[in-house]
Amino acid sequence: MRIWKPEFIFIIFAFIFGVIFMFLTPPYKVPDESSHLLRACEVADGIFYNKTPAQNVECDKYIQRQFSLIRPAEVYQVTGYPPVLYAFSSLGLNAGKFWGGAVMFYLGRIFNLLMWIALIAAAIRITPVFKYQFLFAALLPMSVYVGMSLSADAFNNAFSFLFFAYLFKLIYDKKDLERQDYILLVLMSVLSAFTKGAIYPIFLFFFLPIKKHKYLFSFLCLGAAFALMSWWASINLPFYNPQASPDIHRYLLLHNPFDFILLYIKALIHNCFYYIRGCIGILGLLDVRFALHIYIITILAFFSSFFFLPEKKVSNPQRILSLAVLFMFLTMLHCVLYITWTPVGTYKISGFQGRYLISILPFIFLIFAQNKDYVSEKFQKYYKILLIIFIFLLLLYASWILLKTYHTRWVIPILYHFL
Q1: CB neighbours of 288 closer than 8 A, spacing ≥ 6?
Q2: How far apart are CA 375 and CA 25, in angstroms?
Q3: Phi/psi at 103 (nearest 5 deg)?
Q4: Residue 220, Cβ neighbours under 10 Å: how many?
């Protein structure tokens, strides 16, 4: 049946639980959502970049009918984020100006949710490989949580998944590229430069079925994307943790990199499980956590999918490059956080959150893909059903945790009714 295709399962689950998460989660209870609202309001008013901190933003006045929205006079966390990350949330805010306040806020969330669903559903539909891994990763509670919010991560993660899926389609399904493929690849490369990290799929260009000038095309797209990303960073206001000393850490990074390397290795070893839990779901303002066994079962379910649903098209060079790019992503992000967020004198790199890993999870797919059939096709069919049931139960559990955390007055009557 058509409804059992993974993209339709995703649409159903993402919409139902996205709406549930949305109305169970109070405003500003998603990481940095108040800051993202400020930036979305700027984009809604046509302020696409900031040479100086924006003030007197017209959109703010409509939100302030019900919300206490205070725009800081200085740079805030997402001041320099590109406007494309807020294209849909700003449309929702503009659509809600007539009512203002809560209606306006939730329309911003709804528009972001619908965009997130549409892009990821398209990704699952077009990819010839890892359909159920895409489904699993996209429906992790943390992924749904930011997907239904005003966060820039909603567009960033959805676009990244679509970019990966399109590349998988070209790499594994096509013998040669057509003109429209080149055009789309260039456009997606340019667009990726104005995201938070969706630029990394470009490294897979080296595996595209291009007969002539493949490496030249790949390097040009990669170079152009990084150049545009650097240019955008140079014309916008950067945000630094007030307790950090960027100049000191830049100096230390250049003149004593061994200290950074030790801190980086320590962060990966000591915080590895925390990063994974954050990727699966540490909700609220990073203070709403699941039971420990839920994280462990989710990890086992995710990695079992590679064993029971093999992908025979993945080559060893693709695994090696994916591992290298994943390491590059982690290193660069820790380096940025070392400079911009970590206070001088501390013995750990501050600021890394597991949700940052969601956008690059398809590299994990490539690294752990299996080339052998360990189980029969009949077992694989039943395993897919079990995986869907597990995802449903995981999201149901996350909904219960949100209900219990933010709406305790409802929990006691519910428990009394059922018990």
Answers
A1: 282, 401, 402, 405
A2: 41
A3: -60, -45
A4: 14
> Distance between CA atoms of 355 and 33, rounded to whole angstroms?
14
Confidence at 412, pLDDT banded by 50, 70, 90: low
Q: Using CA atoms, how far apart are residues 53 and 67, in angstroms rounded to an integer? A: 21
| For residue 5, pLDDT beyond 70 | yes
CB 284 within 8 A of CB 361: no
Mean pLDDT for the chain? 92
Q: Residue 414 pLDDT more than 70? A: no
Spatial separation of the C-alpha atoms in residues 195 and 266, rounded to whole Å? 28
HEC readout, the chain: CHHHCHHHHHHHHHHHHHHHHHHHCCCCCCCCHHHHHHHHHHHHCCCCCCCCCCCCCHHHHHHCCCCCCCCCCCCCCCCCCCHHHHHHHHHHHHHCCCCCHHHHHHHHHHHHHHHHHHHHHHHHHHCCCCHHHHHHHHCCHHHHHHHCCCCCHHHHHHHHHHHHHHHHHHHHHCCCCCHHHHHHHHHHHHHHCCCCCCCHHHHHHHHCCCCCCHHHHHHHHHHHHHHHHHHHHHHCCCCCCCCECHHHHHHHHHHCHHHHHHHHHHHHHHHHHHHHHHHHHCECCCCECCCHHHHHHHHHHHHHHHHHCCCCCCCHHHHHHHHHHHHHHHHHHHHHHHHHCCECCCCCCCCCCHHHHHHHHHHHHHHHCCCCCCCCHHHHHHHHHHHHHHHHHHHHHHHHHHHHHHCHHHHHHHHHHHC
| Exposure on the CB side of residue 38, measured as CA atoms within 13 A | 25
Environment class of 299 (CB within 10 Å of its CB; exposed 0-12, middle 13-18, buried 19+): middle
Looking at per-residue confidence, does 345 or 419 come out higher?
A: 345
Backbone angles phi, psi at 306, to 5 degrees: -75, -30
What is the distance between the alpha carbons of residues 281 and 294, in angstroms, rounded to a whole number?
Answer: 10
